[in-house]
Design a protein that fits this description.
The complex is a heterodimer of chains A (about 375) and B (about 240). Chain A is an all-alpha fold. Chain A is about 70% helix and about 0% strand. The longest helix of chain B is centred in the C-terminal third of the chain and has 16 residues. In chain B, about 40% of the residues lie in helices and about 25% in strands. Classes of the chains: A mainly alpha (about 375), B alpha/beta (about 240).
Chain lengths: ~375, ~240
């Protein structure tokens, strides 16, 4: 055996081996690498197939597609009662908003949709102006348009609002309010000033410690008791504030998690180049911290969106409440009405929540600068 | 006698009960280049981090470019404008490009127009020999390149004094030289520098003075040749024996 060795020829550079030979082998590798897991695959496939088949039977094959009233839906063996959805669709969107005034809600949907698309799609220019419009002008315009009583518009009380309109108002207000509030609460909780820290921690822990329903009940029932007589803020407004503060407390903890992921060196480097506290937070720490917790933030947004259905508890006719209230309509009450309503409701919520989820994944990929610490 | 850039006068600091800086007296002249060495935990980093107030001292005076470091926030801001710092772990801002890392503070702290800040940044990126990386993110660079960006970022604020806190300790061996070359270049340009480093060749090449610290005190200081060839204190001798094997 000799110790000395000098390579005279480079070893050849070879292509990586194909992971497995051919399609069938790959298939086996994915779905049945061992007999037991093959059995598992089979069982899951059967269950899944059965579920999809049953839903298909109910929602498509045996479904009632056109009817003037509940009669066909009440027939034995009838599936989904789609005419009910069709008949109620507009009410689901606008609630009891007066029919001849629905253009006002439509304008709000259009303006909000357009400016939100402009904000969310990275390629669209004028982000600054758009943000200014969406966060400042749009809420004012929406408020004036929807409530009316000004500029010759007929006044429409919030008790007449409903459906998707209210769900979106509550959800978007909650989302837009909870993020900045949550950031401030998170910074406050990490502050070195004892009073600020105690206040923020106290707020977060108290609000997180009670169910949203309790917060909404407090806002709607107990709050007026403490106010001077005659002063009773609008029910929807109270719900908005309740939902906003509630989700802010959750958001604060999500953001705090992100703040803890930022190494001390980032703070030190910011201070060393002379950035003040707020600039450091705004320019260096928050962009990184928020990026880390995008999944958590969107998680909060999604659960907030679904939690808006709880405002029905205090008598606001949001999407959930208005769909449910339609079940009692004598013209449509049938064995399948409830099932169909809940099914459609689930689909609507799912579309919104799934969109948020996909968008967050898109943004995560976009913001990934390949930094590994 | 030339003017002082940094003066530390009987500086003491404690972490809880632990006395981390003990009666530090140091006078750094303008244009002087000082290398600080010593075993780990000897207070070297803590001392230079006190100079730009990343750490707060509890007793004694620190005067940087004539500005006393007190609890006065304005003084702290003023001092930080005069003092650039380079860290062991670079601490670049990972969400910003190399160029944005360099222009962030000039734009937001010195209120320079963006174009001017970018011009300055490119000038310093050329000086550290990586102008072609300007639009990349720090995560895409090697350690040596990142550290050179960090030096350029500090230089963009036009500091009068540069602090280096073990700038080569986290680098792979083959990348140390490219960073040291930049530091030598900076030293030859007349920058006042305080470097915590164990690169003894660098110390011999550029330092006016080498300071040896142990257990929170300055044990010995001398000009480099004398320091390495003829150390006086037994602790210095022991330390030098261990690192110069």
């Amino acid at each position: 055996m000799t110790l000395s060795y000098v390579r005279t020829q480079d070893a050849p550079k070879l292509p990586a081996p194909a992971s497995s030979a051919g399609f069938l082998a790959k298939l086996k590798d994915r779905f049945a690498p061992t007999p037991l897991s093959g059995l598992g695959t089979l069982v899951i496939a059967l269950l899944l197939g059965w579920a999809i088949w049953s839903i298909f039977q109910w929602a498509i094959v045996h479904a009632v597609w056109s009817a003037a009233d509940r009669e066909p839906c009440n027939a034995v063996g009838a599936g989904a009662c789609w005419p009910f959805v069709q008949a109620k669709a507009l009410q689901w969107v606008y609630g009891f908003y007066p029919i001849e005034e629905r253009w006002r809600a439509n304008t709000v949907f259009l303006l909000g949709g357009l400016s939100m698309a402009g904000l969310l799609i990275p390629r669209v220019p004028f982000k600054g102006w758009n943000a200014l419009f969406f966060f400042i002008a749009f809420p004012i315009i929406s408020y004036v348009l929807l409530t009316g009583g000004r500029f010759g518009l007929e006044a429409v009380g919030t008790e007449q609002w409903g459906g998707l309109l209210v769900t979106l108002i509550v959800a978007i207000t909650g989302i837009v309010a909870s993020l900045p509030l949550g950031i401030l609460l998170a910074l406050g909780r990490r502050s070195e000033m004892p009073v600020v820290r105690t206040l923020c921690t106290g707020f977060i822990e108290i609000v997180r410690g009670v169910p949203l329903i309790t917060v909404l009940f407090m806002a709607s029932v107990m709050f007026p008791l403490f106010m001077p007589p005659g002063i009773n803020p609008d029910k929807l407004l109270k719900a908005l504030i309740g939902v906003g503060l509630f989700s802010a407390a959750y958001m604060a903890e999500v953001v705090r998690g992100g703040l803890q992921a930022i190494p001390k060196g980032q703070y030190e480097a910011s201070m060393a180049v002379g950035l003040s506290y707020w600039r450091m937070m705004l320019l260096v720490v928050m962009p990184q911290a928020l990026k880390v917790v995008i999944p958590g933030i969107v998680n909060s947004f999604i659960s907030l969106f679904k939690d808006t259905s709880l405002v029905s508890i205090i008598g606001i006719f949001d999407l959930f409440n208005i769909v449910q209230s339609g079940f009692n309509d004598a013209k449509w009450a049938s064995a399948q009405t409830g099932n169909t309503g809940y099914f459609a409701l689930a689909l609507i919520y799912w579309v919104f929540c799934f969109s948020m989820s996909r968008y967050s994944q898109f943004i995560e990929r976009k913001l990934n600068t390949g930094y590994t610490r | 006698m030339s003017e002082s850039a940094v003066v530390l006068n009987s500086v003491n600091k404690w972490y809880g009960q632990f006395h981390v800086l003990r009666d530090i007296n140091l006078d750094v002249k303008k244009g002087e280049r000082i290398v600080i060495c010593g075993p780990s935990g000897s207070g070297k980093s803590t001392m230079i981090r006190c100079i730009n107030r990343l750490e707060e001292h509890q007793q004694g005076d620190i005067i940087v470019d004539g500005i006393p470091l007190t609890t006065n926030l304005k003084n702290i801001d003023d001092v930080r404008r005069e003092v650039g710092m380079v860290f062991q772990h670079f601490n670049l801002f990972p969400h910003l490009t190399v160029l944005e890392n360099c222009t962030l503070a000039p734009i937001w702290v010195r209120k320079e127009p963006k174009a001017q800040a970018e011009e300055t940044a490119m000038k310093f990126l050329k000086r550290v020999k990586i102008p072609e990386q300007a639009s990349k993110y720090p995560g895409q660079l090697s350690g040596g390149q990142q550290q050179r960006v960090a030096i350029a970022r500090a230089l963009c604020m036009n500091p009068k004094i540069m602090l280096f806190d073990e700038p080569t300790s986290a680098l792979d061996p083959e990348m140390i030289k490219e960073v040291l070359d930049v530091m030598v270049d900076l030293a030859q340009g007349g920058m006042t520098m305080l470097c915590v480093t164990h690169e003894m060749a660098f110390a011999r090449q550029v330092a006016n003075r080498v300071i040896f610290m142990d257990q929170g005190q300055i044990v010995e200081q001398n000009e480099p040749n004398e320091f390495f060839l003829n150390p006086q204190s037994p602790r210095t001798k022991l330390f030098l024996e261990q690192i110069l094997h």
